Amino acid sequence: MKTTASFKRGEIISPVPADYIVEQDALVLSDGCRLRHEAGFNTTIISRFLIATKDLQMGEEVLVNLNVLFYDVRDEKGFLFSGFKNLAEEEKQEIYIYADENVRQQAIADGFVPNRKESGIDVVRTRNSQLVTVSRGRHEVNNIVFSSTGVLLPFPVRSTVELPGDQHLRLTGGSEFIRHACQPNLRLAIEGDSIHGIALRPIEGGEQLTYNYLCTEWDIAEPFHCACNTDSCYRFIRGFYYLNAEEKALLFPSVTAAIQEKHHAALPQTASLASLEKTTAIAVTLEGKVAAQRYVASGTVLMNVNRFCVRSREVVLDSLHIPHSCDANTALLEGRLVASKPLLSGDPLTLNLCTLFYELPLPFECHCGSSNCARLVKGFSTLSEGDKSGLIPLAERSVLLEAARHGLNVESSSPLVKIRRYPPMGEVTFAADFIPKGTRIFHMRGLVIPFPTVYTVYLGDGNHLLFADGAHCLAHSCDPNTRLSIDASNGTASCFAMRDIEPGEIVSFNYLTSEWDMASPFKCGCGSASCFSTIKGFRHLDEESQLRLWPHATSGVKSLFAQHRRSALPNLDNSLVYLHENLSELRLARDLSSGVVLFTATTFCIAAGEVVLDDVRLKHSCSPTAVFLEGRVVLSRASLRGDAVTLNINHLVYNSPVFACHCGSANCVGEVRGFAGLTDEQKNTEMVYVDPRVRAAAVENGYRIQSSCPLVEVKPNGFMGQATFAKSDIREGTRFFEVSGLVLPFATIYTILLVDEQHLLFADGAQCLAHSCDPNVRIITDNTRKRIGCLALRDIKKGELISFNYLTTEWDMQTPFTCLCGAALCYREIRGFKYLGDEARQKIWCMATPGIKSMVIATKAEDTWAQIASTRFFVSNDGLLHASEDMKDGTVLMKVSCMEIVREFLSLDGIRIRHHCSPNVAVIENRVVVIFPVSAGRK
């Protein structure tokens, strides 16, 4: 192979295709060119590009040392080269700087240490077998620690630093193993292909050398997290470009000339190597050809294009020449060059000129060699019908319009539809036969790109599916007969019939349900009663229209809606509720019991007789299926599949604009005015579900909560609001004030814990029971019947405040408070049983509910707490442990892991047992054992 032009050292001569052939003394490329092996080489191959290592004149033979490309070919007979692995050490050191990256990595893994004996540095292996560079001697500030040279490259690879003019210097020998540090001991000074390490502070002999990569790299191809752990660590090292203004100003005095050049450079107006390097996806050769520099996924935008022109066998995009291929790997879409199929490193970019021109101004013979090669390329007009259909999603809009004008025949991939020309709309899908409701009409696959076009549907996460095969002819209608279903993970979409479709009927879907922001808005002429007129995208609809279309909106549109607006809609669980297609009414998706949380919302307001929760509208009912508590919509009664989710406005506001209610329930109030408009009897009935602010407003306006218990009355109690008082004398041991309510999976200010994640919301005056650290009642819970009651701990006089200790029923208080009961043993901060110490827990254990005891057992690993919660023991009012049954001597009561003497008690894993000189139990081998018989009831 000989050069066809002059090349300077470091310039790309040509890409090296992956399908080369290795002969005895040469590399034969797919176009027949031979790269002869020679020890005295003038080029090298790095990342599948042939690069000049010396200045070359036009017509000079290209020579390459193939040991830089192959690591071990010793077993291949007849080759004039053996591979890098089998070279002498001196020759390895000599050609290592030119070796392909794969060869370099294999050599290092095999123990090779590249060190071209740069003055001042040594390369050593660490304990974990990594190579690092250390100083050979001691150096003062501003001393030159080492000097080295590298290989000029027109693109970055591992161990390159940037140079001005979009060049890169490949470090080698010792300098390539200098690690990054945010507080380094070196800075790099680069002159041409020479590099000098300058000491930033005194450096000792044997000290590892470091420099700050942010000072040499504008945009690092493989960013990494720094672990230097200094106070000024930059954490994620991406390149100087990504630093903030303050960080850039701090580092700027130490950056290289290449970083200074890019920092001061104006933004490029046309595509160039500088703009392409930003992603390191493609590189440009001197001939203007473009090739992939690494693996590139299909759908990736390679560059933006400001202008293009066609020449024979190629298109010029800005200043870049891209050849034609009938099986191209890129396409020009909406002013962007996009990879239409995956690209491997070194693959040259190609583009089908038939996607740009209906009739080419300069037809030419094609020799691309693809299976579908057109041979004579004249433009889109002369392609076969099959080839046209395949190129439709990639073709310029002007090409498609011209094709349609000439009678383009579009084939459908679905046998259920035919595509015919419909003058008002162009090419449109019609039902070829009867299509039953629920039938999948199209299953669409295609190119996934990061921007919308007229033929894309939004998938989500910034991705858009570009489809064809007739699906792109699906018409829009504001009253459609199909809907789209998106599978974002697989990049596909399906079209399903929403109702029976008759033969010959236009098959359509509502574009508003699939597009957040239309790439090309248009005026709709569907003529339906619910026509939206201008179709701009879901984003531009009013709230009522969005709610109406929500059941048919794709997952991609819903995800964007959630990002742009505070909304409850995206959080709706389809297994619990759904929006009715026609009524926009929220309904139950299956039979559900009371207490199920349907969805959450952050705000509510009343509008036109409805409750608007964020953007979900629920109708009012005097006998609702749900309540709104603590930002959650909860079923208040068991309901059936298809039942509407309704709320009672009287629960949520004290005063409401008056409107007539037509809910038809037995307890309908007729006119809704808010809680204030209810009778006292109605208020007492609804009190259990009322918002705490409404309850407070009612009390302020003189409403007196009624008690359902004849022994108790509710009266004002100063700053405590309304509280419960004994209406008559109540004897010790009396059970009274039994109430039931709604079981919730979360706590509110008016709930009591039954068991974990079950909280009873109650009323009937019991919600006014006061707290005291020295109470006169305890709470009895009935988990089976979902009821609670009170048990008098002592005689209670008429007029006495009735109170219980909130710590005995609540594990973790939803609304903690400071107690002012004044009792001698006041707990002060009432936060819940969870926050009490072991001694305090045992003191009130006798009053604790089963729910609290089960929480203790669940959170305490010790056997002692599980035992005292069992039926074998009980804790008396004075906090001492008693036997519930007769126990024989030798009985093991519990296992103990920790013992501690606390005053007159022995604390066993937090359980206190009083000292006695004639004890009935002893601790033997970490077990509490009965040593004298204990009768039931005895301490």
UniProtKB/TrEMBL annotation:
Coiled coil: none annotated. InterPro entries: Flavunoidine_N-MTase, Post-SET_dom, SET_dom, SET_dom_sf. GO terms for biological process: methylation. Residues 362-378, 657-673 form the Post-SET domain. Residues 415-512, 710-807 form the SET domain. GO terms for molecular function: methyltransferase activity. Keywords: Methyltransferase, S-adenosyl-L-methionine, Transferase. SUPFAM superfamilies: SET domain (SSF82199). This is SET domain-containing protein. It comes from Trypanosoma cruzi. The lineage of its organism: Eukaryota, Discoba, Euglenozoa, Kinetoplastea, Metakinetoplastina.
